[in-house]
Each structure stands twice: as C-alpha cells, then as structure tokens.
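Lab intake sheet, docking and co-folding queue.

SAMPLE TYPE: protein with bound small molecule
LIGAND NAME: zinc ion
LIGAND FORMAT: SMILES
REQUESTED OUTPUT: full 3D complex as structure tokens
PRIORITY: normal
SUBMITTED BY: R.K., bench team

The fields below were copied directly from the construct record.
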Amino acid sequence: MKKLAFAFCLTLSGLAKDVAQAQAQSGKLHIPDIPGYRTLKCDFHMHTVFSDGHVWPTFRVHEAVRDGLDVIAITEHIDYEGFPDEIRKDYNKSYQLAQEAARGKDLLVISGVEISPRVPPYHHNALFVSDANALPADYMKSGKKEFVMKEDMTRAELMAPFLAAQKQEAFVFYNHPGWGWWDGKDTTLFTPFHQELLDRGILKGVEVANSGNYNVIAHRLAMEHGLTMISNSDEHYDVFPRYRDGHRPMTLVFAEEKTAEGVRKALLERRTAAFFDNYLVARQQEAEALFKASVHASLEKQQRKKEPRLLVKLYNESDIPFRVSVKSEYDLEGHPLGQVTLNPRDTAELVLRAVWETPRETLLEIEVTNILVSPEEALKTRFVLRSED
Ligand SMILES: [Zn+2]
Ligand SMILES: [Zn+2]
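RESULT FIELD (auto-filled):
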C-alpha cells in the first residue's frame, strides 16, 4: 500500500512537470514583470520573402502570436531581393502586411530594416524607421537574387543608410558581430566605422546573441560602449523546428507600457535582457529584478526529534529554469556546493541542518549560473529569510 501511494505521488509530480513542460513547449512562456515595468517578449530581427526569407509576413505574425511574443520587427535587407521577378521591391510592405495581420491581436509590430554590407560596419538593424525605402544602398552593384557590392563603393555610400536612419530617429543596433568569421572576415569587430557610428549617436545596441548563439565579444562590446543588449532569432524559415526542444531566442524589454514608444524608451535606457537557450544576459539591475520577480523564497522551522532544522522553499513562478549555487552558514542537506536547479513553476525545498540555535532570520547567498551580468560573472544576489512563526 505504501509502495502504491509512493508510485501515485511520483505519477502526480511527473504530471505536474509534464504540464509545465507542455506550457513551455507551447511557446507561451511566463516571464514575470519586474517592479515598475512590464516584461515584453520581443524579437527584433527576422526576414520574409520581401528580402531573403522564405515565408510571407503574415506567417511571422502567426508564429509570434503562437509563441506568445509581445513585439516583433520584420527587418528586410535593404540591399537584397530574393524574388525580384515575383515581388515588387518595397521594404515597407512586410511591415504593413504584418501590422494589418496583427490587428486585434495582442502583438505589437514595429517597423525595421537590416542594412547589410559585407564590409565594415557589416550588418545593423534600424528599428522604428518611418520609410524603409528611403535608406539608400548605393554600395551595391546588384542585389537581385545575388549579393554583389560595387568594387568602387565609397565610405559615404556605406554611411548613407545610417544617416538616413538617424534622420528617421531609428534605433540602430549591430547584428551578429563575427558573422563573417567563416570566411576569415570580420576579425576586428569594432572598427573605426563603428566608432564613428557611436560618436554620431547612431549606434545604440548590439546582438549579444543571434539565432541562439551567444558571442562573448559582442557582450564585451555592449559593456565597454554602453550598448543595449539584444537577442533575436534572425529567422529566414519557420522558427519552430530549430527551437522545438527549447524556446525561441528573444529580447526581454522592460517597458513602462506596451507601445512602440514604451519599447523605444526602454531600448534607449538599456532596460533589456537577452534570452536564449535558457541563458539570460542582462545588466545587474535588470538581472536581479527579474530573478527576484521569478523566484519566491520562504522559511519554515522544522523539528526532527531533537534536531531543529530550517526548511527553505524556493518557488520559481517563471518558465525559465534557473541553475543556482546557494550558500548558507548551515549545512545544505544533499546539495554539495549548494547546487540546485529551480525548475519552471516548481518548488525546490532545501533543508538547512546544524541549526542548533534556531534563528528568526537567515541569509542565503545565491549565484545564478545561467544569468550573466558580465562576460565573466554570473548574477549574485541574496535572500534574507524570516521564519513565519
Ligand atoms: Zn544579417
Ligand atoms: Zn538578418
């Protein structure tokens, strides 16, 4: 009978996990708001048949709604047409079609384009453009089903789309630095061209992760130059197959409101977290706020015969699993080095032993090894816990 009850319990907890997993796999991740701000799930980089993608803009909307995203930008290459015979060149069109398709849905579509020369400064996205067709790509010889730059292109031609983007008050960020490494290019990722973009107040952000791949050099650039940290899918096909076992990459934007202006303000104020492959990359303030909004800690006194103990419960309300290393002045039963995984929508219970003089409060120091606050450091935070009685 005892065995049966035990088996039943196992089945039940297995079931609870399956539900959490199913919810996570449905793509609609729960990621809580932080004090003062809404947490918006955003993807600011994707393509359609209007440049070199292979889906129609309405499909991007369908995917984003299915995946529970709050904000997307479709960012066609201003210098490439994949289907010039079938589709008339118009880099505003995918935004217009997506916006139309998102009407009445809980998805905000913002405008954007990708400026993509194969020489410095390489690829950048410009968000919030008012007219994508006004960004010149005169450095190209041909962008129709092929990508051929002029041999005698000038620096002014390369700078021109950035100046046009600035005129439109766009938010510009550096895409996938190091993308040309496969052919031995882009070995210097921050060039004099980038310095000029920074000095002119044009360059504001960088993808520290692109299509789920983290780039430590991009992370260093973000920290060194005060750039907003971004993570996007850069999808050209359908998002799902690539991330079927996990979650699609996204940028978490901590905004005062879910409007284009709210997103713009948050990006300018660098209130983001790059989220990919169950890692978060953020600045200390946002990283700590998000972890504390996700994980709720409580303390209970326990007695096992003559042994006083403390039971710590760490409930993770989010769909992000956190890998933590917990330090306490007491013995953490069964957790060498205090290593614990805080599973999504689950409670981890830690028993503190050798608690001979039961305190009213105790300190837990926590390192969250899948939240990076710099290229070298994981988030460190603490909980001061008081027992309820
Ligand atoms: Zn690109
Ligand atoms: Zn792209």
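REVIEWER NOTE: Residues 25-282 form a domain with the TIM Barrel fold (CATH 3.20.20.140).
SIGN-OFF: pending second check by T.M.
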